[in-house]
Fold:
Amino acid sequence: MSLLSVEGLKVTYGLRNPVYAVRGVSFEIFEEEFVGLVGESGCGKSTLGFAIARLERPPARIAGGRVVLDGRDWTAMSERELRPHRWKDVSVVLQSGMNALNPVMTIEAQFRDVMVQHTDWSEPAIRQRALEVLDMVHIDRDILFRYPHELSGGMKQRVVIAMAFLLHPKLIILDEPTTALDMVVQREIMDNLMELRGREKFSLLFISHDLGLVLEISDRVLIMYAGQIVEENRAENLLEYGLHPYTQALMRSLPVPGSDAREFHGLRGSPPNLRQMPKGCAFAPRCDLVTAECHEVEPDLEDINGAKVRCHVVGKEVRVRGSEPSIG
Ligand SMILES: Nc1ncnc2c1ncn2[C@@H]1O[C@H](COP(=O)(O)OP(=O)(O)O)[C@@H](O)[C@H]1O
Ligand SMILES: [Mg+2]
Structure:
């Protein structure tokens, strides 16, 4: 069953001469599915994640499309109508999520606030759930009575993740949840998230610039470039071959197992300025496979053997062969 359906979503910044940061994005997330969203910094991942949860704030604005979550059109609902569904239908954790904790309230008071405002749970039930979510992220129960400044960055980020689980949300959006943390803490949190999958029923949208992390945790991956999805594919397929030349370049930049060296081949230049988008394919100026058509006509996101790819060249190559793509 589809839990989330994003349909042609467009998000702009600014009213006069707006910048399109999300340019017509469509995808689904099924119940209990883990989906990754990956792309270089500035490609619109956070803008998209925020808009899905209707947390976009001016100058950001939804300029088109729909977000249907658990059968409700979130783009057609007022903040007042959305309120009862916040934390329950979707909860969001940001990279700087730990800074979202209120410095003058204990962790317990902040957990309780969410539960009191959004449920009619009894006192014992509230206390019970607070302890449960702390156990889930392997934090000592004593920290309930601490203030945020008494905790390390990694602990605070775990607290924010625990908080996201309080009301058993159907969808959790994690936006670069470990990017600000050191490698050891990052590893612990990733392992923890995978372990939670067996414990709680939830779908995940995992947003990161780090394709390696995304592949590790996701069933399906969306590759984003300049405000659009350029490839949608199963993680296990991506480990074999990326279809889009951008995906292939990202794959080539992954660290080689067993080696400390991080080799970067391929990804020359930088993403386009969203104010001055090139004609045709947004990736063309950086693409090794570029043809004349790419500079003229913007490719559509096409279905190819159960995956989706926005590329003239790869699309044709696979159609000509009529079988398994073997690019890369
Ligand atoms: N507050 C803002 N005001 C104007 N433009 C913004 C703002 N935040 C982001 N943008 C624009 O949206 C684009 C996408 O940003 P963002 O969603 O943060 O990307 P990502 O999360 O992939 O790094 C940026 O390149 C920038 O042009
Ligand atoms: Mg971001």
About this structure: The pocket of adenosine-5'-diphosphate (ligand 1) is lined by residues 13, 19, 21, 39, 41-47, 59, 274 (CB under 6 Å).
